[in-house]
Specification:
With about 180 residues, this protein is an all-alpha fold. It is about 95% helix and about 0% strand.
Length: about 180
Protein backbone atom coordinates (compact mmCIF):
# COMPACT_ATOMS: atom_id res chain seq x y z
CA UNK A 1 0.00 0.00 0.00
CA UNK A 2 2.79 2.45 0.80
CA UNK A 3 4.30 1.79 -2.63
CA UNK A 4 1.03 2.88 -4.28
CA UNK A 5 0.89 5.94 -2.04
CA UNK A 6 4.50 6.74 -2.91
CA UNK A 7 3.75 6.38 -6.62
CA UNK A 8 0.64 8.55 -6.21
CA UNK A 9 2.69 11.16 -4.33
CA UNK A 10 5.32 11.19 -7.13
CA UNK A 11 2.62 11.65 -9.77
CA UNK A 12 1.01 14.40 -7.75
CA UNK A 13 4.41 16.14 -7.36
CA UNK A 14 5.08 15.80 -11.09
CA UNK A 15 1.66 17.26 -11.88
CA UNK A 16 2.25 20.15 -9.49
CA UNK A 17 5.62 20.85 -11.12
CA UNK A 18 4.02 20.76 -14.55
CA UNK A 19 1.23 23.05 -13.33
CA UNK A 20 3.83 25.51 -11.99
CA UNK A 21 5.72 25.31 -15.29
CA UNK A 22 2.50 26.06 -17.19
CA UNK A 23 1.76 28.96 -14.83
CA UNK A 24 5.27 30.33 -15.47
CA UNK A 25 4.72 30.02 -19.24
CA UNK A 26 1.41 31.89 -18.91
CA UNK A 27 3.07 34.67 -16.91
CA UNK A 28 5.88 34.90 -19.49
CA UNK A 29 3.33 35.15 -22.30
CA UNK A 30 1.41 37.83 -20.39
CA UNK A 31 4.66 39.80 -19.88
CA UNK A 32 5.43 39.50 -23.58
CA UNK A 33 1.93 40.69 -24.47
CA UNK A 34 2.28 43.70 -22.16
CA UNK A 35 5.62 44.51 -23.78
CA UNK A 36 4.03 44.38 -27.23
CA UNK A 37 1.20 46.64 -26.07
CA UNK A 38 3.78 49.13 -24.80
CA UNK A 39 5.61 48.95 -28.12
CA UNK A 40 2.32 49.63 -29.88
CA UNK A 41 1.70 52.64 -27.64
CA UNK A 42 5.17 53.89 -28.53
CA UNK A 43 4.42 53.52 -32.24
CA UNK A 44 1.09 55.30 -31.75
CA UNK A 45 2.92 58.14 -29.98
CA UNK A 46 5.35 58.30 -32.92
CA UNK A 47 2.39 58.47 -35.26
CA UNK A 48 0.86 61.28 -33.23
CA UNK A 49 4.18 63.12 -33.40
CA UNK A 50 4.26 62.55 -37.16
CA UNK A 51 0.70 63.85 -37.45
CA UNK A 52 1.62 66.96 -35.44
CA UNK A 53 4.64 67.41 -37.67
CA UNK A 54 2.32 66.95 -40.64
CA UNK A 55 0.02 69.67 -39.32
CA UNK A 56 2.99 71.98 -38.83
CA UNK A 57 4.14 71.26 -42.38
CA UNK A 58 0.64 71.90 -43.69
CA UNK A 59 0.54 75.24 -41.87
CA UNK A 60 3.95 76.09 -43.26
CA UNK A 61 2.75 75.03 -46.69
CA UNK A 62 -0.30 77.24 -46.32
CA UNK A 63 1.87 80.21 -45.33
CA UNK A 64 4.21 79.51 -48.26
CA UNK A 65 1.25 79.37 -50.63
CA UNK A 66 -0.04 82.69 -49.30
CA UNK A 67 3.41 84.20 -49.66
CA UNK A 68 3.63 82.78 -53.17
CA UNK A 69 0.27 84.35 -54.03
CA UNK A 70 1.50 87.69 -52.70
CA UNK A 71 4.68 87.36 -54.75
CA UNK A 72 2.64 86.56 -57.84
CA UNK A 73 0.50 89.64 -57.25
CA UNK A 74 3.67 91.69 -56.88
CA UNK A 75 4.93 90.18 -60.12
CA UNK A 76 1.68 91.03 -61.87
CA UNK A 77 1.92 94.58 -60.55
CA UNK A 78 5.51 94.79 -61.78
CA UNK A 79 4.48 93.48 -65.17
CA UNK A 80 1.77 96.15 -65.38
CA UNK A 81 4.32 98.80 -64.42
CA UNK A 82 6.69 97.45 -67.06
CA UNK A 83 4.01 97.71 -69.72
CA UNK A 84 3.24 101.28 -68.69
CA UNK A 85 6.91 102.13 -68.89
CA UNK A 86 7.17 100.61 -72.36
CA UNK A 87 4.20 102.73 -73.49
CA UNK A 88 5.80 105.87 -72.06
CA UNK A 89 9.02 104.96 -73.85
CA UNK A 90 7.31 105.30 -77.25
CA UNK A 91 6.16 108.83 -76.29
CA UNK A 92 9.53 109.96 -74.91
CA UNK A 93 12.34 108.99 -77.27
CA UNK A 94 14.72 111.52 -75.70
CA UNK A 95 14.49 109.71 -72.31
CA UNK A 96 14.86 106.29 -73.88
CA UNK A 97 18.18 105.28 -72.37
CA UNK A 98 17.12 106.22 -68.83
CA UNK A 99 13.75 104.53 -69.21
CA UNK A 100 15.41 101.42 -70.67
CA UNK A 101 17.47 100.97 -67.49
CA UNK A 102 14.31 101.19 -65.37
CA UNK A 103 12.57 98.64 -67.57
CA UNK A 104 15.50 96.23 -67.41
CA UNK A 105 15.64 96.59 -63.64
CA UNK A 106 11.94 95.88 -63.28
CA UNK A 107 12.17 92.90 -65.66
CA UNK A 108 15.02 91.46 -63.65
CA UNK A 109 13.10 91.87 -60.40
CA UNK A 110 9.99 90.27 -61.84
CA UNK A 111 12.02 87.33 -63.21
CA UNK A 112 13.74 86.84 -59.87
CA UNK A 113 10.39 86.96 -58.08
CA UNK A 114 8.87 84.51 -60.57
CA UNK A 115 11.90 82.28 -60.05
CA UNK A 116 11.47 82.59 -56.28
CA UNK A 117 7.79 81.66 -56.64
CA UNK A 118 8.77 78.63 -58.72
CA UNK A 119 11.25 77.60 -56.03
CA UNK A 120 8.56 78.02 -53.36
CA UNK A 121 6.22 75.83 -55.37
CA UNK A 122 8.96 73.20 -55.87
CA UNK A 123 9.72 73.26 -52.14
CA UNK A 124 6.04 72.90 -51.35
CA UNK A 125 5.70 69.91 -53.70
CA UNK A 126 8.82 68.32 -52.21
CA UNK A 127 7.56 68.83 -48.64
CA UNK A 128 4.17 67.43 -49.58
CA UNK A 129 5.80 64.33 -51.15
CA UNK A 130 8.02 63.83 -48.10
CA UNK A 131 5.03 64.18 -45.83
CA UNK A 132 3.02 61.68 -47.85
CA UNK A 133 5.95 59.26 -47.88
CA UNK A 134 6.42 59.60 -44.09
CA UNK A 135 2.74 59.04 -43.39
CA UNK A 136 2.66 56.02 -45.72
CA UNK A 137 5.69 54.50 -43.97
CA UNK A 138 4.19 55.10 -40.52
CA UNK A 139 0.84 53.65 -41.56
CA UNK A 140 2.56 50.57 -43.02
CA UNK A 141 4.53 50.11 -39.82
CA UNK A 142 1.39 50.43 -37.69
CA UNK A 143 -0.48 47.92 -39.85
CA UNK A 144 2.44 45.50 -39.62
CA UNK A 145 2.64 45.89 -35.83
CA UNK A 146 -1.11 45.52 -35.43
CA UNK A 147 -1.09 42.35 -37.53
CA UNK A 148 1.86 40.98 -35.54
CA UNK A 149 0.13 41.86 -32.30
CA UNK A 150 -3.09 40.22 -33.45
CA UNK A 151 -1.22 37.07 -34.48
CA UNK A 152 0.64 36.94 -31.18
CA UNK A 153 -2.51 37.56 -29.20
CA UNK A 154 -4.31 34.76 -31.08
CA UNK A 155 -1.35 32.42 -30.44
CA UNK A 156 -1.33 33.41 -26.78
CA UNK A 157 -5.07 32.73 -26.49
CA UNK A 158 -4.66 29.33 -28.14
CA UNK A 159 -1.77 28.43 -25.83
CA UNK A 160 -3.69 29.66 -22.80
CA UNK A 161 -6.76 27.63 -23.81
CA UNK A 162 -4.67 24.48 -24.30
CA UNK A 163 -2.92 25.07 -21.01
CA UNK A 164 -6.22 25.50 -19.19
CA UNK A 165 -7.58 22.32 -20.79
CA UNK A 166 -4.43 20.40 -19.84
CA UNK A 167 -4.56 21.64 -16.27
CA UNK A 168 -8.27 20.87 -16.02
CA UNK A 169 -7.73 17.36 -17.41
CA UNK A 170 -4.83 16.79 -15.05
CA UNK A 171 -6.85 17.99 -12.08
CA UNK A 172 -9.72 15.70 -13.05
CA UNK A 173 -7.41 12.69 -13.23
CA UNK A 174 -5.97 13.32 -9.78
CA UNK A 175 -7.52 11.27 -7.02
CA UNK A 176 -9.13 13.33 -4.31
Amino acid sequence: MSEAQEKLLKEKTALQERYQSLETNCKNLETKLISEFEERRSVEASLEDALKHNEALEKELEMNLEECDEKQEECQALIVQLQQLQSALADAEDERSEQQEVIESLSSRSRSKITACSRYKDDIRRLKNELHHTITEKNSRIEMLEKGLGDRQMLFNEQLSRTKKSVTNLMLTLPE
